[in-house]
Amino acid sequence: MSLAVTDAPTADLYGTALHSMNDPDGHRHWYARYEGGPRRSLGEALRRWCSTVDPTDQDLLARAPGAVLDVGCGPGRLVIELARQGRESAGVDTSRVAVRLARSAGATALCRSIFDPVPGEGRWDTVLLADGNVGIGGDPAMLLARCRDLIGPTGRVLVELDPAGTGLRSNRVRLERGTQRGSWFDWSHVAADAVHGPAAEAGLCADQTWERAGRSFAALVPASEHHRRAVVVPRIGLAS
To answer: Cystine design at 135: which of 57, 93, 124, 188 (Cβ 3.0–4.6 Å)?
Structure first.
């Protein structure tokens, strides 16, 4: 007997992966396949994305002032926690399943690409790129430039990065489980000591870097406003 390979849109297979977290062993057997390279288990990452915030997440949110936009929010653990705290926030994700999960838990979430129009452009205090989401689109400089356009003059972009020494690399990736295959999509990995180049291209500079529990982060701010942080940013009206 031969097993047919099922090709599925990435967003659909990602939704299947999120739903599988309802099963005790649902996180098992999910992989990210790199074109022409290895595959890496996504099990632990999926469990973290679908769980509640941990102390490292809490520390990240404590460093995120004002109104927060969570880019690639997934099922929404960060934006759900921000809503629980009564903070002005929204998540953006292209997965309808992820957005439904975030909304069902009380968060504001928008189903769209970050490169599409977003409410409050130029007025967000913080944009989050957690869980390696600086890789979205496979062009970190382009993504960071987009985030630069979203924040106010004293805003910041908080980025979660790969460990130092692993460089900056772009590739095509797809989700896999068993005979199921998602569509290829562009993705990048950016190390903690490699973010300065794409940040500078985007008009940003690193205001702070830190590590916690094996995870690496940077706070990026507009280069032209690095020493000017006194502008008051108007509040944001959110639309679904």
So the answer is: 188
